[in-house]
Amino acid sequence: MDTKQRQLWLIRDRIGVKPLYYSIHHGRITFASEIKALLEDEQQPRDVNEEALYYYLSFNATPAPLTLFSGIQKLAPGTWLRVNEDGHVQECRYWDVWITRSHLTNVPRRRLPSASFPNSALPLSSAKSVTFQWGFLSGGIDSSTNAALFSEGDGQPVKTFSIGYDREYESYPSELGYARKIAQKVGADHHELLLKEATCSSLFL
User: Computed over its alpha carbons, how large is the radius of gyration of the chain?
Assistant: First the structure.
C-alpha cells in the first residue's frame, strides 16, 4: 500500500512460487493467496470460466490470469497490479525469464580468464572467477548453468572438470552422475578425478 500516492500494489514473485488471486466486483477489489478466501465474500461471482475449464481438463492446470471462476483472476508470475484511488487498474510485467537469460549469457563470459586477459591463451572453461584457469562442474545448478552457457557458440567444446570418489559412500552420495549428464548434454570435453578413501585419509595423517 502506497499511502502517499493512495495506491494499492499487488506484486507476485518472479517465478510464481506464491499464488496471488484477486477479484474486482461491486466497486471493490479483494485479494488473497487462496481462492477459497475470496469465496468467503457472499457477493463474489461464482460463474465457471469455460475457457479455464478447457485448459484444466486438457493440461490439469489453468494459465494465468485465468482461474476456474470467471470473476476471479490470478496474477501472473513476475507481474504487478496497481489500483489507483479512482479505481483505475493497471497491470504490468516487471520480469521476464528470457531477458534474464540474455544477462546470464553475457555475465559469465565477462568473467572468463580469456575475456579478462585478451592476450591470454587460456581456453574456455566453466570457471566461476577470473582467478581460475580451469572450471569445475559439480552437477549443481550454478556450474551446470555456466557450462551450458559457455558451450553456446561456434568455438571449441567447453572444458569441464569434476572431482568425486571411486565408489558410492553412504555418508556422501556421489554427484558425478549429474555432472556427466550435463557434460554430455552440452558436448563438453569432460575430465574427472576419482579419489580413493585411502588417498583422502592420508591427507589428515
Answer: 26
